[in-house]
Design a protein that fits this description.
The radius of gyration is 20 Å and the shape is globular. Helix 6 crosses helix 8. Strand 2 and strand 3 form a beta hairpin. The chain has about 300 residues and is α/β, with parallel strands linked by helices. It has 2 domains: about 160 residues, Rossmann fold (3-Layer(aba) Sandwich); about 100 residues, GMP Synthetase, Chain A, domain 3 (2-Layer Sandwich). It starts with 7 loop residues before the first strand and ends in a 7-residue tail after the last helix. Strands 2-3-1-4-5-6 form a 6-stranded mixed sheet, with helices on both faces. A 3-stranded mixed sheet has the order 7-8-9. The chain binds guanosine-5'-triphosphate. The site of guanosine-5'-triphosphate (GTP) has 23 residues, from helix 1. Guanosine-5'-triphosphate binds next to helix 1.
Length: about 300
């Protein structure tokens, strides 16, 4: 194989405070929706991967949960999953929201990042809404603390600067065979991705009414003979009154959630979807190992 034809393949870990725009950036790099974007912090519980292609380079993106001070077991699992994704990556992207900087979350992250052996890249996101002067001050401050190999100014939302960043990232990947087939954009199982889509609708439609501690468990996933798919999911909440909120008056809310999720699922999967949602009250589900594993998290002590 000559230098011109050889392929490259590598891992890129995406790290950042909650809401920095990691999921949006992964989607922009992959070019289609794989990670779930939400205005609510800490929505990325499962480690969904996106696979971005740039010419002859394949980049496996590990979209991490927001890293923040862990308190409960659920929080600790999320932090652990995030750093696990960074281990031995060919590049770690630190995504920063320069407008709503979460200093208390960014500081420990920057500190921990300084000790990592992997190549570190600073991504200042949301340039579409950030002011230039403070943006440059922040870039200078962070590059003073961590030895970043490169700094990019992008808007994951508008795509500004993303294509240039993607080319530069691709050049950092080592030569090697591709790990995934060309048409694969995500290795997250369809069951898990389907549950993530429903969870996004839950958050979208219930806003502040529903606390973070609700989960969507994938149950059955049946490919029907007619080419459609039958998906059963369970929405787990911590209390009875939360169940009432999810159901809505006469079941109207869960119906709307189900309809929106089904429409999106059909589009993502490219097939007709029959979606069945059930709500279950399970106190302390956030301490349940079984549910953890079902929503794609490792159980840590
Ligand atoms: N204006 C603007 N908003 C953005 C940009 N990138 C992301 N956002 C918004 O910022 C919010 C958070 O984006 P996400 O991609 O969900 O952030 P995240 O870092 O994955 O969040 P967690 O899953 O909580 O860790 C969403 O409302 C996005 O639409 C950007 O470049 N510009």
């Amino acid at each position: 194989m000559t230098a011109e034809t050889s392929t490259r393949c590598g891992f890129v870990a995406v790290i950042g405070a909650p809401n920095a725009g990691k999921s949006t950036l992964v989607n922009a790099l992959v070019g289609q929706k794989v990670a779930i974007v939400s205005a609510k912090a800490q929505t990325t519980r499962a480690r969904l991967m996106g696979i971005a292609l740039e010419d002859k380079t394949q980049m496996v993106l590990v979209d991490t949960p927001g890293i923040f001070a862990p308190r409960r077991r659920l929080d600790r699992a999320m932090v652990s999953a995030a750093w696990e994704g960074a281990h031995a990556a060919d590049a770690i992207l630190l995504v920063v929201d320069p407008v709503k900087q979460r200093r208390h979350e960014l500081e420990p992250l920057v500190e921990a990042l300084g000790r990592r052996p992997e190549r570190k890249i600073l991504v200042l996101n949301k340039v579409d809404v950030a002011k230039k002067e403070p943006l440059l001050v922040l870039a200078q401050e962070l590059t003073g603390k961590v030895d970043f190999a490169e700094v990019f100014f992008v808007s994951a939302q508008t795509g500004d600067g993303v294509a240039e960043m993607k080319v530069a990232l691709a050049a950092m990947m080592p030569e090697g065979e591709w790990i995934y087939p060309e048409d694969q954009v995500s290795d997250a199982s369809e069951r898990l991705m389907a549950a993530e889509i429903t969870r996004e609708q839950l958050y979208k439609q219930l806003h502040e009414e529903l606390p973070y501690d609700s989960a969507v468990r994938p149950e059955q996933y049946i490919e029907r003979k007619d080419g459609s798919v039958e998906i059963h999911q369970q929405i787990v909440v911590g209390r009875d009154n939360q169940r009432a909120i999810v159901l809505g008056k006469g079941g109207s809310r869960i119906k709307a959630i189900g309809e929106a999720a089904r429409a999106e699922l059909s589009e993502v999967l490219g097939q007709k979807v029959h979606l069945f949602l059930h709500v279950k009250v399970e106190e302390n589900w956030a301490e349940s190992r079984e549910i953890f594993e079902e929503i794609g998290l490792d159980w840590v002590r």
